[in-house]
Automatic annotation (TrEMBL):
<feature type="domain" description="Heterokaryon incompatibility">
    <location>
        <begin position="50"/>
        <end position="189"/>
    </location>
</feature>
<dbReference type="InterPro" id="IPR010730">
    <property type="entry name" value="HET"/>
</dbReference>
<dbReference type="InterPro" id="IPR052895">
    <property type="entry name" value="HetReg/Transcr_Mod"/>
</dbReference>
<protein>
    <submittedName>
        <fullName>Heterokaryon incompatibility protein-domain-containing protein</fullName>
    </submittedName>
</protein>
<dbReference type="Pfam" id="PF06985">
    <property type="entry name" value="HET"/>
</dbReference>
Amino acid sequence: EKMYTYQPLANPTSIRLLCLASSVKHDAPLRGTLVDAKLEDLSDDLIDTYTALSYVWGDPVRVGEILLDGQPFGLTASLRDALHDIRDEAREFRIWADAICINQDDVTERNKQVAMMGRIYSNATHTIIYLGAFTTAVAKALDMIDPRKSRHGPYRNSAGGVPTGPMWEEALSDILNREWFRRVWVFQELVLSRDPWVQVGISRVRWDPFRELVFDLHKMASDGFNAGIRAESSKSAIHILEDMHKARTDDSSRSLFQLLQARRGMGATDPRDIIFGHLGIASLPPGHRPYIEVDYSKSVMELYVSVALYILKTPGRNLGSLAVLFEQLHGPVPPNWTTALPSWVPDWRLPQGLHSGFHGKLQIAPEVGFEASLQYPWATSSSRLGTAGYLIDKLKALGPVVPSESVFPLARRRDYQMNLSTTVKFIHQAAPHRGWGDSPPSLTDIKLIPIPSTHDEYGAFLKECQSWLGVVDHA
């Protein structure tokens, strides 16, 4: 049987819309038609509106299908389930879903359409955030948000508080562990949406009451009523939810660098989408195009190098653009991980960067009397980065490195800082000629996070202690 063949888009600003045929049977075969429409016409159309779909692609294997103009078109399991669940029983539904409405095999079209995705979501009358399949607990929770639909009682109890109990706990844990919260594209899709709705199975509610419910229940979780809700994945989802809400309600703009710092390591089928998925909401100066326009013909390395150069060449206060050099990988690399990136280029696919151990700001002290544009004549050749500078002095010796935060669990922070502080004071008294001034170095002024020590890390700790003792012996 002949598979569906795309027709070229008629105009540079055209998009395709899926006209999804109605069905009273949930499991009936999916049918529809693709229509061509100019984006600027859709923004002013009061009748022929459309709804954008925000969902997780999931496994790329196509296991389902929809008949488009009578011809089969392959669907992933996640998109198949979403279309079955959002399909209306009586009316045709005009939907924009990227996997269908963009010809993914046409790189030129894909580049243009992905560059327009910010406008596509902001012009849509509604956005459906499809979190996945039905579960009884989540469906009941969503129904309770809307008293008109609820068959299980009001969302708030008689005292005006948040209800608790096994069903609510199970629902919250289920919601927070949905993959949607950890994907790259969904942040932009939500922030730009006019009227977002959340859907699980066939249950659908507006975004704001959904967010309120999740936050209220999570406050109850902070009292420790459910260990599953206190898991790291649930905490991460709450932080992401808070950031999404702030971005929707806050008028302040964010640079691409700020967005990448906050959302590095988010899931993406294509690693290049970690960059492209934020362009619609990033504050970009006019000169950004040579570095970060949507282009899927570029390799991951080419794109990530271009983005690093763009950030370095973007003027910023207090050497802010140099902070990108603190974003390289720092810590354990996932098994079988390979990268051909230069050492100065951050790998945004990985969640942790050196900045996680660097809590200060790159600043020029005012007493040095330095005034400049804070722009640097960066030069690149292949994978090398260079710039011009001045020779101030030469290092005579290097002391031991202050142990990394990953070596010490939080429980040992106080003992470590106390012992190190005592050691530094002793060295200062024994060797005042070293020119440290009135105050010892702030070597103890570090921040640690609760990462369990392993045997190897404890060995590293002992090695660092021996290095410090060597300094004391020779002071």
